[in-house]
Amino acid sequence: MSESLRLTPEELRWTLDTSTLPFATTDELEPLDEILGQDRGVEALRFGIGVRRPGYNILVTGAPGSGRMDAVKKVLAMAVEGGNVPGDLCYLNNFKDPEAPILVRLGQGQGARLKKSMQALVDELRKEVPKLFESPEYLARKNEINEAYEKKTASFFMNLEKQVKEAGFALVTFQGRQGQPPEVMPVVDGEPTPVLKLEQMVEKGRFPRDEFERIKAKHSEIKSEIDSIFLQIRQLQKEIQEKNRQADKAMFSNLADDLIAPLREDFACEELNEYFRHMIDNMVENIAIFFAQEQPPHMPVGDPFEQYTVNVMVDNSEQQGPPVIIEEYPTYRNLFGSIERIVDRSGVWRTDFSRIKAGSFVRANGGYLVLNLLDAIMEPGVWQSLKRALKSRKMEIQTYDPFYLFTTSSMKPEPIEMDIKVIVLADTYMYHLLQHYDDDVPKIFKVRADFDTTMDNTGEAVSQFARFVRARCTEHGLRPFDRTAVAALVEEAVRMGGRQEKMAATFPKLTDLLMEAEYFAQQDGRDTVMGDDVARAVEARIHRSSLIEEKIQDMIDRGSIMIDTDGAKAGQINGLAVYSMGDIMFGKPSRITVATSMGKAGIINIEREADLSGSTHNKGVLILGGYLRKMFAQDKPLAMSASIAFEQSYSGVDGDSASSTEMYALLSSLSGVPIKQGVAVTGSVNQNGEVQAIGGVNHKIEGFFACCKARGLTGAQGVIIPRANVKDLMLKPEVVDAVRGGTFHIWSVDTIEQGIEILTGKKAGARRKDGTYPKGSIYALADERLKSLAEGMVRFGKDENNTKDND
Question: Is 335 in contact with 359 (CB distance < 8 Å)?
Fold first, then answer.
């Protein structure tokens, strides 16, 4: 039977016939301008991009290295071609409420023009306003107003002085009290005398009291009249000042209106017209800034003209279509912008509208934003803010800053209406976690574009792959690849895909292999890359990362790790394990031993007892008990204790790919028939004894082959694999050559019975109608052993009871 189960060399590796490639080198081909092998994902991407509805953002899922980002870039490049360019976004100062800057939306490129025009306007005003207020017309008008004020004031004082003099009083003005009413003093003996001094004279009898009382009453009357006159004078001053201010405003407004008129025509925007009105009013209120070197005391420290500038948040003047922004570092600041702060000369934190900075989310408004999910989730505040903005379709720029309380401003810019398509890249595991834990994800990411790591291995796919190689050569300036090199690349892609009918779609990794193969062609001074260069690149890549593999192999060769590759032993077998180190995966054998005895413990998983066994491995061991009960416990109990161990395994075991191996060792221990140590085994088993497919079959076979090769191939060595894995075989050429030369063998089996016959050289034995097995078969020997163990348990129980009775 073993001959019929032995695989032929042709079954061990899929090869591409180079004669089927209709070119000598890739220079003869047209570069591939489409996305290869990702029809499902690309179709979903195009659908999501085409649906301009709320919530139809896209989650691109798939393994890293599946070309997700390249595909997104290509699809977006085609989607934005000929699309509408969004306008510019600007923030302007709100003169009524500086904490709430005004958002202005302008056409493409108009933001920068507005900023330049406003700067020119302010510069012109700074130059013309001083000239305006030095003009003869202005000075004459102001002199006329001031003269009228002076005449009225002089008239008031003349009448007052006359009344005071007639009443026998005098007006006395003290130095340093300008702007204050003069002091009224009675004239006594030709000299102005203070009332207080006069009162002291009365007290000393030097002045008549009745005369003092009369003077005092008159003094109070005159003083009240003086206060009333000065109140009128102050009111007159205010009127004059208001007239001067209105005159200044009228002249300034006329000048400003003339200068702003071109801007009103150039930027036909109601928001700007209103802004210009408020700006002129503010300039009039602070007109001193056009004259004084120092700004008015009520204005903030800094350039007083900065409040009239334009903060161009988004400038799309250079855009040819809708913006596409790939945010590779999505911090809160980079993604959503910030409101910067500075410390002024007085040591106070402050900010204003000119310090509002846009992030990539706002810059991508009207277009597309691409980012990585894991990066967004890891950054504080990013994921929640992104969801909030996508749900509300608005963006309010704020600063995510733990020190925001130290600022003296609570800036709240006007929110921005968002029309954006967000594309988030995630691996499949993260996608399912989000779907489970975040209820908002289905609402705002309604499209999933799933990218596979493999594609079908068809003739058309091979042709497209060759054109893909041509495109990468053009893109990276590589030498052309001949048909043998393309065939080698295709075969490597099939090996990476893990199945003969599939090819790997991890094109970034394949592109790296192209460049590495071209390096070896360059080293040899050839103008064309050949198949040998690809093989050298593959081997070099393995060699760079295989230090651990070589150390393990060295330990096997020295006997530190005990592995037998010849002879036969009962209850001992070589299982096959795969080691994954991130950048490399390799297989190595592991000795599995089984010890059986009388008892009731059943099958003891030593790895589990030592907390070194994973849940999947535990399940595989439990299945062994089910198979034994089905085959041998229909007419008797399983009175057996069997311990299973992975020898010299100290870092944990998981997976059920060794369950068939453990079954073989268990049958060998029960039957006493030795197992050939030159044959290693992999495959899981079910309770019906059917051998099931496992992963990493190529690495497992190559790992055992390396051990056998190091000790010398005898022609009796080989590996047993599940038949379901035959289509997954893509072994290295040296393994195929060894099989072709008869020095190594690979068998595929469907059942435990087939495998045990290869391992022991004995028939497994088919159960008869009476429940027995053919004499001398593996199952008959195992059944007899189990029966004797059960009988022994009964005898032991009776003897023990008799001993107790005698006692």
Answer: yes
Q: Is residue 585 part of a domain?
A: yes
Question: In a 10 Å sphere around its CB, with 0-12 CB exposed, 13-18 middle and 19+ buried, how is residue 618 labelled?
Answer: middle
Q: Do residue 386 and residue 508 come from a single domain?
A: no
Whether residue 576 contacts residue 681, with contact meaning beta carbons closer than 8 Å, is answered with yes
What percent of the chain clears pLDDT 90, i.e. is strictly above it?
48
Q: Has residue 57 been placed in a domain? A: yes
Determine contact, residues 397/337, Cβ cutoff 8 Å. yes
Strand order in the sheet with 311-314: 102-106, 88-92, 311-314
How far, in Å, CA of 788 to CA of 301, rounded? 101
What is the number of domains present in the chain? 4
Which pLDDT tens digit goes with each residue over 686-702? 999 999 999 999 999 99
Tell me: do 565 and 701 sit in the same domain: yes
Residues 656 and 715 in one domain: yes
* Same domain assignment for residues 157 and 244: yes
Q: What is the C-alpha to C-alpha distance for residues 540 and 552, in angstroms, rounded to an integer?
A: 19
The C-alpha torsion from 218 through 221 and 226 to 228, rounded to 10°, is -170
| 37-89 residue pLDDT tens | 888 999 999 999 999 999 999 999 988 877 888 889 999 998 998 889 999 99
Looking up residue 27, the CATH number of its domain turns out to be 1.10.8.60
CA-based nearest residue to 719, from 585, 586, 588, 553: 588
Last residue of a domain, one of 434, 451, 468: 451
524, 545, 566: which is the final residue of a domain? 545
Locus of tokens 């890359």? 529
Domain-located, residue 525: yes
CB 771, CB 784: distance < 8 Å: no
Angle at 413 between CA 411 and CA 419, to 5 degrees: 150
Kindly state the tokens that stand for 194: 């203070």
Q: How far is it, in rounded angstroms, from Cα 21 to Cα 338?
A: 57
Q: What is the pLDDT of residue 407?
A: 46
Both tokens of 188, joined, read: 């006594």
Cα 442 from Cα 783, distance rounded (Å): 58
**697-711 and 547-558 helices cross at what angle (nearest 10)?**
40
Same domain, 705 and 678: yes
pTM (2 decimals)? Answer: 0.78
- pLDDT tens by residue, 632-656: 888 888 888 889 998 988 777 887 8
For residue 213, give both structure tokens: 């009382």
* Same domain? 394 vs 505: no
Domain span holding position 246:
136-278
Q: Which residues contact 369 (CB under 8 A, 6 or more apart)?
A: 325, 327, 360, 361, 420, 421, 422, 423
For residue 753, the tally of other CB atoms under 10 A from its CB is 20
CATH number, domain at 62? Answer: 3.40.50.300
- Of the candidates 92, 59, 456, the residue with the CA atom closest to the CA atom of residue 277: 92
Question: Residue 774 has which token pair?
Answer: 């053919």
Residues 341 and 468 in one domain: no
- Please enumerate in sequence order all residues whose Cβ is within 8 A of that of 303, keeping only pairs 6 or more positions apart, or say none: none
The one-character DSSP state at 400 is -
Please enumerate in sequence order all residues whose Cβ is within 8 A of that of 749, keeping only pairs 6 or more positions apart, or say none.
Answer: 5, 683, 691, 720, 721, 722, 723, 755, 758
- Cβ neighbours of 261 (radius 10 Å): 11
The CATH number that applies at residue 613 is 3.30.230.10
Rg (CA), the chain: 48
- Please give the average per-residue pLDDT across 194-203, as a whole number: 75
The three-state DSSP-derived secondary structure of 23-40 is CCEHHHCCCCCCCCCCHH
- Cα four-point dihedral sign 87, 88, 89, 92: negative
Q: Is residue 298 part of a domain?
A: no
* Same domain, yes or no: 571 and 539: no
Scan for tokens 């410390």, then name that residue: 343
DSSP-derived letter for residue 723 is: G
Place of tokens 């022609």: 715
> 296, 253, 271, 259: which is closest to 101 by C-alpha?
271
Task: Let me know: does 161 contact 196? Beta carbons within 8 Å.
Answer: no
**At residue 180, does pLDDT exceed 70?**
no
